[in-house]
Specification:
- It is a single chain.
- By secondary structure, the chain is α/β, with parallel strands linked by helices.
- The chain contains 16 helices and 22 strands.
- The strands form six sheets. The chain has a seven-stranded mixed beta sheet.
- The longest helix is centred in the first third of the chain and has 18 residues.
- The protein has two domains: about 260 residues, Aldehyde Dehydrogenase, Chain A, domain 1 (3-Layer(aba) Sandwich), CATH 3.40.605; about 190 residues, Aldehyde Dehydrogenase, Chain A, domain 2 (3-Layer(aba) Sandwich).
- A hairpin with a 6-residue loop joins β3 and β4.
């Protein structure tokens, strides 16, 4: 008879997790499946009392959790990773229904989740001794902040949250997870699994409406907010945190440029660039959003990227062959319809796709046509703004200095890449790009032990890696005189 712990849980009921208890709320709500528009399960709508109870439990738990060694806290995280893995297929199914991800895309998210869950426990906060002589020692160490809150978006509802949760816990903080109102279910299940692993109050989750975030950002018992979402909301979060001087990490929008040099192997590069522009139907902050192609290969590249994109199948969460899934929610779907309406109004030339049919849609689901815009003006909204959907411009460039200037012209600076067979040239160009992540011959490449975040209006601070771990702490200068 096996003595292995049973980490399996049911995926049919959804509750807040407060102090390791599954908790009802007076009011509930339902989201809809983006592939079918059918209502999903009831989920909690938290109020101020729920927030106060959760913060109180987290504050109490912090007093003992912070005293554990990093190695002991890491052992908890390893058990948690085991428990997530035991429920992995259920999470894949759930992400399909709530986030609109076809099976391949949902499995990819769980691959990222497990990578973070396995690698984060290997990180450690390290002390530095800038002075250490016979008279005195000065130590720089990192001490946990207290109660942390993660405000997590709907596009990668598990990956982006767990990248906040695990470093926060490893550093000695306690954590409250607030999922998007559009994707509450997976976070609530993750926290329910956490009740089998962590002491009460260490990891909690509260779902609700748009009113929940402000209750958490204003709460004096919360020490840090880590937010991933839009620039506009990020500015509101930062302003709300100012009154209590909360620590803040913001990972906001992106308008990532990819610069394609004239010496690339078009067939090889096109397949990668098309994937990185359109994966998850363009609903990733680090998707390629602007493709700058050297004029000498522009026509050949454009033809190839259109042909490649046409091969990607569109389908719902049950379609194992689908690449393009639906837009995750009606709000974003309607925003994109307005965005696409500019195609005819602004006389943009389409190489693929175009505006959706104006007639009432015959099928359910928030699907938008994959669209490629051929060399629009540099000041057009398809170049300047982030659509967050399956539409991307391809633009010509001639001069190296000019294309770097154009890539850097955005107020956003999340990521950017350069593609060339001449790697030293590409590195020289990439190092001039103003972004939190820069890549050569790749894009959107991430690892749990490498930090990511944005420059300019794409954010403040970074998640993941040693930098992300230290971001869940206050640095502390610690002086010791060796004689009294």
């Amino acid at each position: 008879m096996s003595t292995a712990p049973d980490y399996k849980i049911p995926f049919t009921t959804f509750y807040n997790v407060i102090n390791n208890e599954l908790t009802d709320t007076v009011t509930t709500r339902r989201t809809v499946c983006p592939s079918t528009e059918e209502p999903l399960w009831e989920s909690p709508v938290s109020d101020e009392e729920d927030v106060n109870r959760a913060v109180s439990a987290a504050s109490q738990a912090f007093q003992s959790w912070r005293k554990l060694s990093q190695d002991v806290r890491a052992e908890y995280l390893i058990k948690f990773a085991d428990a997530i893995e035991a429920n992995q297929q259920d999470f894949i199914n759930l992400l399909g229904k709530e986030a609109g991800k076809p099976p391949q895309a949902a499995a990819f998210e769980m691959y990222l989740v497990m990578g973070i869950a396995r690698e984060t426990p290997k990180l450690r906060l390290k002390e530095d001794k800038p002075i250490d002589d016979t008279e005195r020692t000065a130590i720089v160490r990192y001490v946990p902040l207290g109660v942390g809150v993660g405000i997590v978006p709907w596009n990668f509802p598990l990956t982006l949250g767990i990248g906040k949760l695990l470093p926060a816990l490893l550093a000695g903080n306690t954590f409250i997870w607030k999922p998007s109102p559009y994707t509450p279910y997976s976070a609530l299940k993750l926290a329910e699994i956490g009740t089998k692993i962590f002491p009460p109050g260490v990891f909690q989750a509260l779902s609700g409406e748009d009113t929940l975030g402000p209750l958490l950002t204003a709460h004096p018992g919360v020490a840090k907010i880590s937010f991933t979402g839009s620039v506009e909301t990020g500015k509101k979060v930062m302003a709300a945190c100012a009154s209590t001087l909360k620590r803040v990490t913001l990972e906001l929008g992106g308008n990532d440029a990819a610069i394609i040099c004239d010496d690339v192997d078009i067939d090889s590069v096109v397949a990668k660039v098309a994937f990185l522009a359109f994966v998850h139907s363009g609903q990733i902050c680090m998707n390629i959003k602007r493709i700058y192609v050297h004029e000498s290969i522009y026509d050949s590249f454009l033809t190839a990227v259109v042909a490649t994109t046409k091969q990607f199948k569109t389908g719902g969460y049950t379609d194992s062959e689908a690449f393009f899934g639906p837009i995750q929610n009606r709000m974003q779907y309607e925003k994109l319809q307005k965005f696409y309406s500019q195609i005819s109004r602004e006389s943009w030339k389409t190489a693929l796709g175009g505006e959706p049919s104006p007639s009432p849609k015959q099928e359910n689901g928030f699907f938008m046509p994959p669209t490629i815009i051929d060399n629009p003006p540099e000041d057009s909204s398809i170049v300047v703004d982030e659509p967050f959907g399956p539409i991307v411009p391809v633009l010509k460039w001639t001069d190296e200095e000019d294309v770097i200037k154009r890539a850097n012209a955005s107020r956003l600076g999340l990521g950017a890449s350069v593609w060339s067979k001449d790697v030293p040239r590409a590195q020289r160009m990439a190092e001039q790009l103003e972004a939190g992540s820069i890549w050569v011959n790749t894009h959107f490449e991430l690892a749990p032990n490498v930090p990511f975040g944005g420059h300019k209006e794409s954010g403040l601070g970074m998640d993941w890696g040693q930098v992300g771990l230290e971001g869940w702490c206050n640095p502390q200068a610690y002086w010791v005189k060796h004689s009294g």
